[in-house]
Amino acid sequence: xxxxxxxxxxxxxxxxxxxxxxxxxxxxxxxxxxxxxxxxxxxxxxxxxxxxxxxxxxxxxxxxxxxxxxxxxxxxxxxxxxxxxxxxxxxxxxxxxxxxxxxxxxxxxxxxxxxxxxxxxxxxxxxxxxxxxxxxx
Amino acid sequence: xxxxxxxxxxxxxxxxxxxxxxxxxxxxxxxxxxxxxxxxxxxxxxxxxxxxxxxxxxxxxxxxxxxxxxxxxxxxxxxxxxxxxxxxxxxxxxxxxxxxxxxxxxxxxxxxxxxxxxxxxxxxxxxxxxxxxxxxxxxxxxxxxxxxxxxxxxxxxxxxxxxxxxxxxxxxxxxxxxxxxxxxxxxxxxxxxxxxxxxxxxxxxxxxxxxxxxxxxxxxxxxxxxxxxxxxxxxxxxxxxxxxxxxxxxxxxxxxxxxxxxxxxxxxxxxxxxxxxxxxxxxxxxxxxxxxxxxxxxxxxxxxxxxxxxxxxxxxxxxxxxxxxxxxxxxxxxxxxxxxxxxxxxxxxxxxxxxxxxxxxxxxxxxxxxxxxxxxxxxxxxxxxxxxxxxxxxxxxxxxxx
Lengths: 137, 402
Fold this sequence. Notes:
Chain A is an alpha/beta fold. Chain A is built from five helices and seven strands; from the N terminus they run αβαβββααβαββ. By secondary structure, chain B is mostly beta strands.
């Protein structure tokens, strides 16, 4: 039995985690304590720029790893379509697209230090400087 | 007035830091579309007098836009869009250079955004993006929106004029949203004084309106999942004071005619396909005297004058995204101005497009397109008065962001 447990642990460490658990994080000054998938999608597709009537500033992780894939799968969008919508906003003077950030550490740093900021990182990177609004598995 | 607006905005761009607003920095960016086109046309059974079966190529910079954006904190921004077309050259008289957009924006809550200046309004689906080539799969746009035909078709006589004041917003629902726009415009260009249209000489500067009319309009849209649909309306007046009533160039004064526009648009994404389109009907209110005159002129010369000032446009596009980078599409478009059968034919000017493209990266899109256009003309001859007209247009090119 112990061998079975050891084998299960070894397997879980070696099988790649295609979809990481992703935390939607916010600056502690954001008044909302939670966000739904629909609200999150509205924010990142620029249908809305507010959460609970508060203007928010979005960050978008550009590193194409499991965190990004889980996030996109969670909100039901693909990278190409999102970029088209952001480009349309940029060229027509629409809402400000999310700011691209290349690493999860930078996302965490920017969200913790920017008023009204929201971003997404791997759940195991969250620290006490931000609050978690939602987890996507 | 446009020069004053640009100078004002440029002054604000540089002055606002001194007023204490947080400033994110001036962003300068733009795009261009370069292409090669092979064009030919045929008349069946034969060209009428004065016409030929033409064949020619051209290439170069179809359009180049230079954009400026500056955010002043979270709520205010300014945006300027300069546009050059058709291998622009002031010394040779090629193409055009226009101030396409220049406005201040207040980014209020989701339900209220305000733009003030010179704004391409949200009206129907394609108008707001018609000159944003990186956003469109085609090289040659649907007929109403093709800027490189501006000396042939005055698109701002069919579309609403640009807005001075534009408000818009969305009401996000859980999985859907309602969007709206409402705008106030100058009158159409035929009421704007210019060297070729010097209205009230000595009083009105070129580029300024010579009447006290304004235009109004708006759009109401609904967005659910990958489906967006909208209805648009606008109202203004048309300038028919110097209407050319016959082929000899004789003018009559038909006055200023009330005019309305009604549009529908849709955009539907499903399973890698994008189906979109729009319809626009422009209707002018004419008295019975004017209608009788139109009927008489049309009977005398059906090749040159139609019997209605109504205009109609629609297009439908079906695009398939083969991969995230590769796409293909087919499109049908139709445009007519019923008073002008000399250009638009007896049944309108319509075409079938097929094309595709490849997104080389986020900034470069390679495009190819073939168009077959049709029209039918009554040239008024005893033999074969009705002639079929065909145009073949093959284009390849690239849209580049910088």
